[in-house]
Design a protein that fits this description.
There is one protein chain. By secondary structure, the chain is mainly α. It has one domain (8-139). It contains five helices and two strands. A two-stranded parallel ribbon has the order 1-2. It is elongated. The two termini are 29 Å apart. Belongs to the glycosyl hydrolase 1 family. InterPro entries: GH, Glyco_hydro_1. GO terms for molecular function: beta-glucosidase activity.
Amino acid sequence: DGRGAVNPKGLQYYNNLIDELVNHGIQVHITLHHLDLPQILEDEYGGWLSPRIIEDFTAYADVCFREFGDRVATWTTVNQPNIGIVASYDIAIFPPARCSDPFGATKCTAGDSSVEPYIAAHNTLMAHASVVSLYRRKYQ
């Protein structure tokens, strides 16, 4: 559901994958977010449009650092945030496909292209900063 108890089968899957990469001499690089926000967080509070995402994203990163960090060489918080934000909250070609006319690639049914990309960008940067602070304080 985007928070709460972590799926142990999911952790085991990624632990096995990381172990295989390491066993084959591959340096592990993990991206925490690549356009894959849990739908429940979008439905509950608007995902990246809400500052609530900062705490949830930081908690998710904490689990990843704790579970996989001993074998991960490099962490990336958010892949291409500028692309994801514009495509999601300005021109509506990626979920949650929010925009306002005349900006959308298709007919806009929800959103405000003059404001929402900036709100999502702000919350993305704040979540990134929170995760970096957590990593430096607890795992570095």
